Amino acid sequence: MESVGILGGTGPAGRGVALRMASCGFDVVLGSRDADRASAVAADMSVRGQGSVRGDSNEAAAQCDLVVVATPFDSAVATVSALRSSLANKIVVSMVNALVRENREVLPLYPSRGSMAAQIAHALPESRVVGAFHHLPAAMMEDLDSGLEADVVIFSDDDTARARVGEIVDMMPGLHAVIAGSMSLASAIEAFTAVCISINIRHKAHSYVRLAGLHH
Fold first, then answer.
1. Those residues with Cβ within 8 angstroms of residue 44's Cβ, 6 or more apart along the chain or in another chain
2. What mean pLDDT value characterizes the chain?
3. pLDDT at residue 165 in the model
4. 158, 150 in Cβ contact below 8 A?
5. Residue 215: what pLDDT?
6. How far, in Å, CA of 114 to CA of 103, rounded?
7. pLDDT for 1
8. Which of 33, 91, 177, 205 could form a disulfide with 169 if both were Cys (CB 3.0 to 4.6 A apart)?
9. 3-class secondary-structure state, position 179
10. Considering the domain 3-203 in this protein, what is its CATH number?
């Protein structure tokens, strides 16, 4: 089974992805700028299944077979740029959303290249960048008993990398892969995360995306 590194993985979103990947057999390295903090966070996680989660530096996470970017949006490009040689020829999954909180709403920001996935792809010309995991409530992702049954919208200009990420998502408990299309859809998909979070704030809920009419 491939190893998976999660850059900036100690936040709620990264931890949720790590737990669900570990539960279907992946060995996950939770990366952070502070390796000791990452180790402490990983030690607190109740991992199920055949996989594992350990904490280490972002540099160590970048050595894994497949790498997920879960950093805050304002540090994502700097983080991946510094790891560019380690990330060459690998699938790099961006789950980064550029969002700003304004009163009781979250609004999307539009980076200069239109999306965070495009910013990351530009910074990593030798990597195979795929977007996934954008519309998921972190609290439900972290709770393996939450009953989550969410669709994960996936996009990339690299067909084989996109298909591989789809296969992995379908292995993860409670998640169903939906291939949307190319990187051209990144801006709309990332921005919709602001809608999801704003709805959850307003309704004090943990809603998520299910697309009717697809055969799972």
1. none
2. 97
3. 98
4. no
5. 75
6. 24
7. 76
8. 177
9. strand
10. 3.40.50.720
| C-beta atoms surrounding 35 within 10 Å | 17
DSSP-derived letter for residue 98 is -
Q: At what angle do helices 73-82 and 116-123 cross, to 10 degrees?
A: 20
Domain boundaries, the chain: 3-203
Chain CA centroid to CA 208, Å? 15
Category of 25 on φ-ψ map: left (φ > 0), alpha (ψ -120 to 50) or beta: left
Q: Which residues contact 104 (CB under 8 A, 6 or more apart)?
A: 198, 201, 202
Mean pLDDT for the stretch of residues 163-188: 98
Cα-based distances in Å from 190 to 18, 56, 63 = 20, 28, 26
At 10 the three-state DSSP class reads: coil
Give strand ranges (E) for the chain: 3-7, 27-32, 52-57, 66-69, 91-94, 99-102, 105-108, 128-131, 150-155, 175-181
- The 3-state DSSP class for residue 59 equals helix
Question: Which tokens in the block code for residue 214?
Answer: 């697809």
| 44 DSSP 8-state letter | T
Whole-angstrom distance, CA of residue 68 vs CA of residue 95? 7
